[in-house]
Amino acid sequence: MPNRLIHEDSPYLQQHANNPVDWYPWCDEAFEKAKRENKPIFLSIGYSSCHWCHVMEHEVFEDEEIAKYLNQHFVSIKVDREERPDIDKHFQSVHQLLNQRPGGWPASIFLTPDLKPFFAGTYIPPKRKYNMMGFLELIEVIHKKWSEEPESIIKNANEIQRYLEPKDGPVKATKFDLSLIDRTIEQAGGSYDPIYGGFSKAPKFPHTSTINLLLDLHQLTGEEKPLEMATHTLKNMAKGGIYDLIDGGFCRYSTDDMWLVPHFEKMTYDNGLLCESYLRAYRTTHDSFYLQIAEDIIRFMKEKMMENHLFYSASDADTEGEEGKYFVYTYDEVRHALEQNGFHEEEVFEILKALSITPEGNFEGKNIVRNESLTSFSWWPKVRRILKILRASRTYPFIDKKVITSWNAMMIKALFLAGEIDEGYLDEAQKSLQALLELMFKEDKLYHSVLINKTPTIEAFLEDYAYLCDALLQAYQTTLDEKWLMLAQKLAEQAIDRFYAGGKWYFSRGEFPTEADISDTSYPSSAAIMTNSLMTLGTLLDPRYIDIAKKTMAYHSIKIVKYPIWHATFVTAVLRDLKEDIVIKSLPPYLAEIKPLLQQAVTYPYLLMHVDINPAYNVCNRHSCFINSRDKEEVVSLLQTTLKH
User: Fold this and answer.
1) pLDDT above 80: residue 449
2) For the range 632-640, what are the long-range contacts, defined as Cβ-Cβ under 8 Å and sequence gap of 24 or more?
3) How far apart are CA 504 and CA 645, in angstroms?
4) Strand-by-strand arrangement of the 500-501 sheet
5) Residue 592 has pLDDT above 70, yes or no
6) Do residues 573 and 592 both lie within one domain?
7) Of 164, 186, 221, which residue is a domain's last?
8) Residue 119 and residue 142: Cα distance in Å, rounded?
């Protein structure tokens, strides 16, 4: 018989609707039951494409004995972290506090009936293994302690709660200067993998904010080292593994140093951010390789992850209970398929070798397709179609069809960037932006997530405002349509009103007030993205926004200066402040004419376009205008000369 989750929209909660555990969603009914019956709460947080969430569901939550004990002695609550990131952020900080290391998913938290945490873990096996207490043993111990010595648990929970209360921020700021550039390059070099690229050991994440910053630093300084670190990383990621050579698109992270064996889930945020990074690399190097990867990401997202111009949140790592089953190939099936499609023996051998397909395999006896040499083989389009056909008979991984405002905004921004290179992408970019606004911005209120064709109820968090502002400002830069600029300003005002306080940004201010991350984690800091948006609005519309951005940077300055590589998006904002944005003002047709010339000839990352009634080109920084001309070639030439000094 289904539990209460059967009535929830979240695909993740629906996955648990038939567990024997008597799950509740996050709701007053569950809290009241816990207080009324004086039972501890077991809180489990995960998401639909999470491999270890599936493992724990199968091993623990489908176990009748464990479910019976949980139902008898605890109130069990399930939360979708993508739906309620505020709850997740709060309890991830609990895990960090109690275990002195980052948490993850599934998050397994035990709370008193009044919602004070006293134990935090992640995946917990059903029986003792991996040197870990088993789940059944753990809940037996907790129940015994709660029954016999509840005061000791309550005392511990109260102490934890005191530690979780917001602390005052830094009492002083440190001064920013351009030495930050050298420090950033040095820190990036210290964590950089010169063999395979990337900025950590396995597990390896894409770190797009670091890549983007390095591309900017190359343009600012002319130094080759930042460019080499960024492009070497992008090329190695594209060889196959974390990047799916067959369907396109990127998986979430690599479990090894060489980007070969991924965690096979594909997230919209990774693909939106990586699409932007590859487009930036193309703009910097004019190497069509990067454009091809970006276009492949867009193609994948439109084919597999889009409905009504909106993007789903994620696809699963597992198929039929087996991680990566959809994605990998046996040696024999590929060899046979190539022979059946007219390739002779020598060609088959060449193709198998070029794509790293061997009898022993490179992943649990099977093969992840990989082009180690990055050669553009003439046979690849045909072979790719053959490999696609082999996949067509398989079960496609489960897709979570939630629409998340911030993640859609990341992908939409990438579409507008692509539209500056190929106008064919502009129509889709504008349709997607309009569809997102129609679904998630209702009666001047922004919402966070909802299933397509449903009505949203979860109000937006800082990340939704920040990334949507970012996308709207890119839409303005690409189309020069002032409606996008005005809407970005409106949303920024709402964000300031709801989430800003004296230099500090909050991720949420509702049930769980949580401070916004300032470091870039799974994706760039929402506080830093908002700060960059305010820098743009301040340059184009009102210096008041720059004042707020400066206060934010000053508030976090000690951490930014000490660890710039962890705060790459904030470093971008700092450098924009130190070097200053340059604005080219004119009528829209004139701006459209000069933009391609600027992109080809001017290597300065902080150029903005702004619509003005003056038919001449007026070029300004924050304090003055220093070029005025009707001749676009002259403007480009003068700008090149100015930026060299």
Assistant:
1) yes
2) 632/590, 632/593, 632/594, 632/597, 633/597, 635/584, 635/594, 636/594, 636/597, 636/598, 636/601, 636/602, 639/582, 639/598, 639/602, 639/604, 640/601, 640/602
3) 36
4) 500-501, 504-508, 514-515
5) yes
6) no
7) 164
8) 9
What pLDDT is attached to residue 1?
A: 82
**Is the pLDDT score of 393 beyond 80?**
yes
3-class DSSP state of 189: helix
Q: Are 85 and 51 in contact (CB under 8 A)?
A: no
- CB contact at 8 A, 173 and 554: yes
H helical segments located in 441-542: 462-479, 482-499, 526-540
Residue type, position 62, single letter:
E
CATH of the domain at 634: 3.40.30
- 8 and 154 belong to one structural domain: yes
Whether 354 maps to a domain, the answer reads: yes
Angle at the Cα of 253 from the Cα atoms of 472 and 204, rounded to 5 degrees: 110
d(CA 80, CA 99) in angstroms, rounded, equals 22
Structural domains counted in the chain: 4
Q: Residue 253: its pLDDT value, please?
A: 96
For 541-560, the three-class secondary structure string (H helix, E strand, C coil) is CCHHHHHHHHHHHHHCHHHH
For the segment 109-115, the average pLDDT, to the nearest whole number, is 96
Residues 496-555: pLDDT tens digits?
999 999 899 999 998 888 999 999 998 999 999 999 999 999 999 999 999 999 999 999
Q: At residue 317, does pLDDT exceed 90?
A: no
162 Cβ neighbours under 8 A, 6+ residues apart: none
Q: Are strands 402-404 and 306-307 parallel, antiparallel or unpaired?
A: unpaired
**Integer distance in angstroms from the first to the last C-alpha of the chain?**
73
Q: What range defines the domain where residue 147 resides? A: 4-164
β-strand partners of 323: 318
279: in domain: no
Mean pLDDT (whole number) for 82-102 = 93
Give kind and range of the element (H or E) at residue 508: strand 504-508
Q: What's the pLDDT tens digit per position in 113-148?
A: 999 999 999 999 999 887 779 999 999 999 999 999
Three-class DSSP category at 476: helix
Residue 336: helix, strand or coil by DSSP? helix
The model's pTM is 0.94
Cα gap 635→641, rounded to integer Å? 10
Which of 523, 459, 568, 577 minimizes the C-alpha distance to 84?
Answer: 459
